[in-house]
Design a protein that fits this description.
single chain
């Protein structure tokens, strides 16, 4: 069939049909996709098995999302602690807003606890009728001691208690009031000047240690086992000191206690910070983090007060 001047069906050099026609099955069934082929072509090597990972969802994304190998069996990611105990491990602070909000919440709770405690101490030290009432009703001391033990064990051993609001705030409030009462009774046995000196020194020491924990490159979160051993040794030393009383023994015991709980304050602060440290506390554990810091500060105060009292006696 003639198709124009100088062009015949058999003339391939002029764009004609190939001899013998096109091969059978050359065209895909259903035709080519509408819109043409994607620009740049399809990736070499075909599609990955299992398809691509789903797009990121609003909110927190797990560590390692978007990194090659994410989602494959055995993938852990750099610095990932998923699968460990969620109380002290297993949360990666990739989101700055999450970390800052968590720290603000912890220190807000801690400041409220310390304010209540300082109020009780001031009342018991400077208000004579309150001090006299406590001396006439010693059973109040043991009631407060029992409340401290029950609430502390409940918050430490039951994750649902310290994570569920408002139950966690109720238990923390009861613990703070009972502990503040005990500290008030203890402080009333010392001179008011010694107590205020202990308060000032505790505030200065805790502020310096907190700033050190935020700035230092040393990771104290790996010292949990060593601190536990030191605490057990301190406990045994305290039992021995009961049977060997003396000013020197008291000073040595109180100095060791202040040193150990100063290290605990750095340890718990870095657990709360997360980030570059090996172990972290989950943001859900803001009550537990505030409780740890509060106990560290209270123990430092007690040991500093003991040192001042022994030195002034």
């Amino acid at each position: 069939m003639w198709q124009g001047p100088g062009v015949y069906p058999g003339d391939q050099s002029q764009g004609g049909y190939p001899q013998g026609g096109y091969p059978q099955g050359a065209y895909p069934q259903g035709g080519y996709p509408q819109g043409g082929y994607p620009q740049g072509g399809y990736p070499q090597g075909g599609y990955p098995q299992g398809g691509y990972p789903p797009p990121p969802q609003p909110g927190f994304q797990p560590a390692g999302y978007g990194v090659p190998g994410y989602g494959e069996p055995g993938y852990a990611g750099q610095g990932s602690n998923f699968g460990e105990d969620s109380d002290v491990k297993g949360f990666d602070f990739n989101e700055q807003s999450i970390r800052k909000s968590f720290i603000r919440k912890v220190y807000g709770i801690l400041m409220s606890q310390l304010l209540v405690t300082l109020t009780f101490i001031t009342l018991f030290v400077y208000h004579a009728p309150t001090k006299l009432w406590v001396q006439r009703n010693p059973y109040m001391f043991w009631i407060a001691f029992a409340v401290v033990l029950v609430t502390l064990i409940a918050m430490a051993c039951c994750p649902s208690v310290r994570r569920t609001a408002p139950m966690n705030f109720i238990f923390l409030g009861l613990f703070t009031v009972a502990e503040s009462f005990l500290l008030g009774v203890t402080s009333s046995m010392y001179d008011s000047v010694a107590v205020m000196m202990a308060v000032g020194l505790t505030a200065a020491v805790c502020l310096a240690l907190t700033l050190f924990a935020f700035q230092t490159k040393w990771d104290f979160t790996v010292m949990g086992g060593a601190l536990l051993c030191a605490t057990v040794i301190l406990l045994i030393f305290g039992i021995v000191a009961i049977f060997i009383p003396g000013k020197t023994m008291t000073l040595v015991y109180a100095s060791l206690g202040a040193l150990i709980f100063s290290l605990y304050l750095i340890y718990d602060t870095q657990l709360m910070m997360g980030g570059k440290h090996k172990f972290t506390i989950s943001p859900e554990e803001y009550v537990f983090a505030a409780l740890n810091l509060y106990l560290d500060i209270i123990n430092i105060f007690i040991y500093i007060l003991t040192i001042i009292g022994a030195a002034r006696d």
